[in-house]
Amino acid sequence: MEPFVLREEADRPSALFLLKCWSGTDGLTAGFTARQAGNVALHVGDAPQDVISNREAVTRQLGWDFAAFTCAEQVHGSDVYVVAAKDAGRGRTSRDTAIANTDAMITNEPDILLAMFYADCVPLYFHDPVTGAIGLAHAGWKGTVAEIAVRTIEKMRSEYGAKPENMRAAVGPAIGECCYEVDESVVKHVRPLLDTAVGEILKPNEKGDRAQLNLKHLNRQLMIKAGIMPSRIEMSSWCTSCHSELLFSHRKEKGATGRMMSWLGRKSR
């Protein structure tokens, strides 16, 4: 069953995909914005105030204060930042105040809404119900082969004592293997990570000169490698390229597109 479900709206098209099985449990909110929420990233050339207004609207729909909205300046890397209470609100209205050079954030602080931005890359979600720690990561192919999923899990363990066997995770909407074709310059970095799941992650295209890459499945494999139980990993089937009526796709729209947002936060009780 698809874990990311469009929230029903009575008077307008839905702008939010909720990670249904997480939302509302342990004070969590988790999900992904739809195209209808508008562009929520400041780096693609839209008027900053329009982007800020879109961010405010999403946060308001979630029932959160915009002061909690906290984001990073993503660089397709693998650095994990530990978000403290003093970091709340960084980047919400300006790239200058965002957490620098970061593609994953973790925290055990309540009332901080972590946010990251995408237009084909893979959103990764982590939650440890024992310690209350949460994590959010952005995994393009570069971050994936740098094992950002593993690094995030390890950082949650070292910082908060989160045990992978207790954790749950989710892989959100992203470009699917159906639409993500790569050449040897990418494949050579992916191949060393593969185990018995090679056929599920890399498939030759019809001409045999390129490969269809399943980044979502590869990140799931890395989560399992790091100790998360397969039964505790949710996997979205939404492909950003196939469903450009609902989702932005950098590849399908040849770079001229907005960005969606993953979010994860835990309210104090």
Automatic annotation (TrEMBL):
Pfam families per the UniProt record, alphabetical: Cu-oxidase_4
Cofactor section: Zn(2+)
UniProt keywords, alphabetically: Hydrolase, Metal-binding, Transferase, Zinc
Catalytic activity annotation: adenosine + H2O + H(+) = inosine + NH4(+); adenosine + phosphate = alpha-D-ribose 1-phosphate + adenine; inosine + phosphate = alpha-D-ribose 1-phosphate + hypoxanthine; S-methyl-5'-thioadenosine + phosphate = 5-(methylsulfanyl)-alpha-D-ribose 1-phosphate + adenine
InterPro entries: Cu_polyphenol_OxRdtase, Cu_polyphenol_OxRdtase_sf, Cytotoxic_necrot_fac-like_cat
Metal-binding as UniProt keyword: yes
Entry keyword Ribosomal protein: no
Function of the protein: Purine nucleoside enzyme that catalyzes the phosphorolysis of adenosine and inosine nucleosides, yielding D-ribose 1-phosphate and the respective free bases, adenine and hypoxanthine. Also catalyzes the phosphorolysis of S-methyl-5'-thioadenosine into adenine and S-methyl-5-thio-alpha-D-ribose 1-phosphate. Also has adenosine deaminase activity.
Family under the similarity heading: Belongs to the purine nucleoside phosphorylase YfiH/LACC1 family.
Protein name: Purine nucleoside phosphorylase
Species name: Cohnella hongkongensis
